[in-house]
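User: I'm writing a tutorial on reading structure tokens. Could you give me a worked example: one chain, its sequence, then its tokens, then a sentence or two explaining what the tokens reveal?
Assistant: Sure. Here is the example chain.
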Amino acid sequence: MPTSSLYQYRPLPQGLFHDLLVRLESIAVGTYGGFLRLPKDRQQVMLAVLAKAARHLLMFKSPRTTRSGIDRDLIAIKPLVASMRRAKSRELIAEHYGSVPEGFLGALSKTSGPQTVIYYDLLFNTFVDPRNQTVALVVKQLPELDLNRLLTLLELDPVFLRPRFALKVKNEAEAKALNVTLGLIRQVVGGAANDEALRQSIRDMGERTPLATWASNWLRRVPQISYPALSLGDHWLPLDSGAKLTEAGLRLQLCVGTPSRIIGVLKGERFYFEYSKRGVIAEIQAIGPQRHLVLAGVHLAGNGIVPRVLRTEVERQFLAAGVPGLDSWPEDCPWRMVERVCRHEFPHTDDGFGLDRLEHDDFAGLEQQVAA
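And here are its predicted structure tokens:
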């Protein structure tokens, strides 16, 4: 005959609550076994109550014992064990937490296994603090809950607090990064990125749509990006908005419209110009603390090979505008000097023995030259 789910055995992982229940077994036989046979929702209620008791127990120190060797802290909470066995879940929470906020018992029932002591207080405060009202609404709709998920929800900007979206966020660190991304989007996109538009974009997200896609779609709506003023003539068009970068990338099958490229432009690390006469993209990079502008690349549609004549024409025009190519930097440029050092581009000197022409281990050849 199958075992009833009410009395199904559920192993308790090692941890604070495991140790506490084992200690309680010494003064109230059957406590540990009885706990393991409880249904999941009742287990979580008992863990929530034990979390309150655990605050004044010396869990990580030697027990304070009487002369007979009995732990005095455990004796003090022995009535608690008896009440947990008899009282109903709502009565227990009301007695030890002061109230039973709507949704709290449901959140306990969907909690995945024993959590830390702080989790149960944090969960309770989520339901009683008016500032966390939106988080509480999301918690009610989630299939499962644990400390990591709760901390992530509490970290997220309210705009993101939609169950389907929140489940995509893995942890607090990712939540913080999303909040920063949201701040940047609001700053660079402007009024179009108002709260209602942002929430609508989150509601419209597909179940399998990654967070990166959501962020990328907003970055492509940046209306204007600050570019350096260069005298290049009317045929060179700066790709100085998210829409221009995206359109050019799709039309020419280049990666200039990808999120990483747009972010690079927003950071002022690189800039793109389109040569309307010849259908090429010039990539400018700002290098070093002095922000030296350098022509870093010339790109044809589909990353095709750029003819030497065309590349030379582009390099000449940018050099005239004060932007040298990587091969035409002046020798006294600070970064040119640094590159020469790092690439060992200095000729060896002849010290009379011709050491620059010898291998390091060619001792025989060295002796012959010295003798001569």
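What the tokens reveal: The two ends are 103 Å apart (CA to CA). The beta strands are 236-238, 270-275, 280-287, 292-300.
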